[in-house]
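Tokens as discussed.
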């Protein structure tokens, strides 16, 4: 599925609300993708600003970790169905503009590619909320451009460049997740009766850090439990079905 190409224009104060002024290109493009005729954007609901309101449903687009939503989301879920949208770049182009910002000095594909399991890095902040009956998570797999500019504060090891914007090139898939069990089901066949975070990392083809976040999410959701140790590593097993 192809999504809109993100605009690089900055909204003016007369054309956008305060929230929109702080948005980056990726957020604006996803908001344009999810909005429908007659929907409200940047609308205040129960003291919070919702990205999109379609009837009774609220759509919250969050491109970073979910920690800032720890207060907002539970309040909104008390009275409204909420779709939480999170983009993950399956493919990312690294773009370096010219000094005047009018052209492109270089554009190359990043060797790093994201998977749906990168969501655990964000979910670790709110693992128990995913089971709420009013919450649906949509993981949007994308092709993106990451715009980088020189930054004197960055040391040479980091290349002296910093990312200032993410632009949507294409939406390639959307995974709708109703609860943590949906994510566990994507890994279940690859795991033994007992498993460690090293096994999770292998199953997800991810870093050990991300596997640790996944293990934490599964434990908090009641899907797994610690059953022992293998050296210094905790050993997990699936929780018994009640």
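Sequence:
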């Amino acid at each position: 599925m192809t999504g809109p190409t993100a605009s690089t224009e900055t909204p003016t104060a007369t054309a956008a609300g305060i929230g929109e002024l702080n948005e980056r290109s990726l957020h604006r493009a996803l908001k344009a993708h999810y909005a429908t005729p007659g929907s409200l954007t940047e609308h205040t609901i129960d003291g919070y600003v919702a990205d999109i309101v379609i009837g009774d449903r609220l759509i919250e687009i969050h491109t970073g970790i979910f920690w800032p939503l720890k207060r907002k989301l539970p309040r909104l879920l008390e009275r409204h169905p909420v779709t939480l949208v999170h983009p993950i770049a399956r493919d990312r182009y690294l773009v370096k503009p010219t000094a005047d910002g009018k052209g492109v000095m270089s554009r190359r594909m990043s060797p790093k590619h994201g998977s749906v399991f990168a969501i655990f890095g964000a979910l670790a902040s709110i693992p128990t909320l995913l089971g709420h009956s009013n919450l649906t998570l949509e993981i949007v797999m994308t092709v993106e451009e990451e715009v980088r500019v020189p930054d004197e504060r960055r040391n040479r090891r980091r290349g002296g460049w910093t990312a200032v914007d993410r632009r949507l090139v294409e939406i390639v898939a959307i995974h709708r997740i109703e609860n943590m069990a949906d994510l566990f089901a994507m890994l279940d066949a690859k795991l033994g009766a007992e498993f460690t975070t090293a096994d999770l990392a292998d199953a997800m083809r991810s870093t050990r850090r991300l596997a640790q976040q996944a293990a934490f999410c599964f434990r908090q959701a009641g899907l797994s439990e610690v059953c022992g140790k293998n050296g210094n590593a905790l050993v997990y097993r699936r929780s018994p079905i009640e």
